Amino acid sequence: MKFTINRPAFINQLNNVLRAISSKTTIPILTGLKMVVTDHSVILTGSDADITIESTLAASDSSYGLSIEEPGAIVLPARFFNEVIKKLPDKQATIEVFNGLQVRITSGTAEFTINGQDANNYPHLPEVESENTVELASDMLREVIDQTRIAVSKQESRPILTGIHVTLNNGILTAVATDSHRLAQRKVELPETADRDFDIVLPGASMTELAKMIADEKDGVKMQITENQALFIFGNTHFYSRLLEGNYPETSRLIPESSDTRLEITASDLLASIERASLLSHESRNNVVKLSVNPENKIATVSGTSADVGNVEEEINADQIVGNPLEISFNPDYMRDALKSFGQTKILISFTTALRPFTLVPTEEKANFVQLITPVRTY
Fold it and tell me: Where does the record place the DNA polymerase III beta sliding clamp N-terminal domain (predicted)?
């Protein structure tokens, strides 16, 4: 195996693949980077068993300056190899295998020799059939992930809740996440997929990495599903994620259908008030912020208290307040995450009672996006 490549372009692809490689894996070879060189490309693979990322560097792409002398395959210590490539002095780097599993890396006047492992011992990638393919706009997919992953559970006691439940049915893609204290649900109409359907749970951590990787992707993302894997194809990258096993709880019944008090406000305005109130709540033991709503006087107030530090009270400018008077307490961090997902849009917050979950929806397209938060009992 021997090839020469443009170093800066190589580093970009290495950084992508390294996202999937963890030093904590129980399978030693997965701390390595698999490199397969064919007559026309270099294929880099990294995996932690949950996520696998594969990048193909084609010789036909002039940005890589790729010159292949001899094909082959090797597994190299990922982090160390990446640091070596970063610190090489010249713009070009030549990598070759000799003496079986030793690798020589040369660039300018520098020469490194590192030990590799047999690529045949690296786990094989799952075969994903292309029949069940859905094409998604990258910005839409990223938005759906970002708006739902905030409600993914961090507790491993219920593994299924550490994922995002994604279904496709009758041309509607639905993504839901809940940690039993809050819920985020987003729907997107995909009329061209009316003949396809699936019901899967994708790990929240995997989807967070995917959202980062497609942030600058101009073209769409192809999504393919198998029994226990999902494959996302974009640019020259294949992103594999395992699926979580088990049945996701039925969440649609958790969303209230009626309300007694409604508040219409710009999400960013309320977010600023919540963040100021949380300065106090974070200093107290229970981390609670209170919202008082008085429809008769058209006044809504946010307040936070810390026995050690003091208190804050702020009247907020709501566009509309209707229904019954209400005082409700909640975790400001949950509220902050929910409000951030709406950006600058106007939202409608609907309450039933002080102890029942309340919902936040955009004033436009109410049916397509909902955040739900369970209040905190303070007495």
Answer: 1-126
Burial (CB count <10 Å: 0-12, 13-18, 19+), residue 268: middle
Quote the CA–CA distance of 329 and 79 in Å, as a whole number. 46
Domain boundary among 121, 156, 190: 121
Give the C-alpha separation, 192 to 371, whole Å.
27
Residue 250, token pair as written in the block: 């039925």
Percentage of residues of the chain with pLDDT beyond 90: 80
Query: Which is it for the CA torsion 206, 207, 212, 214, positive or negative?
Result: positive
238 and 260 part of one domain = no
Please give the pLDDT value at position 142. Answer: 96
CATH number at residue 188: 3.10.150.10
Cβ contact 86:8 at 8 Å: no
Task: Tell me how crowded residue 137 is: count the other CB atoms within 10 A of its CB.
Answer: 15
Q: Which of 42, 44, 46 is nearest to 19 (CA)?
A: 46
Q: What is the C-alpha to C-alpha distance for residues 222 and 236, in angstroms, rounded to an integer? A: 12
Q: Which residue bears the tokens 């929240």?
A: 204
Q: Is 128 within a domain?
A: no
- CATH code at position 270: 3.70.10.10
Q: Calculate mean pLDDT across residues 71-94.
A: 96
Whether the pTM exceeds 0.85: the reply is yes
β-sheet bridge partners, residue 70: 2
Q: Domain count for the chain, please give it.
A: 3
Q: Are residues 317 and 214 in the same domain?
A: no
The amino acid at residue 73 is A
Within this chain, do residues 234 and 265 fall inside the same structural domain, yes or no? no
Largest CA distance in the chain: 84
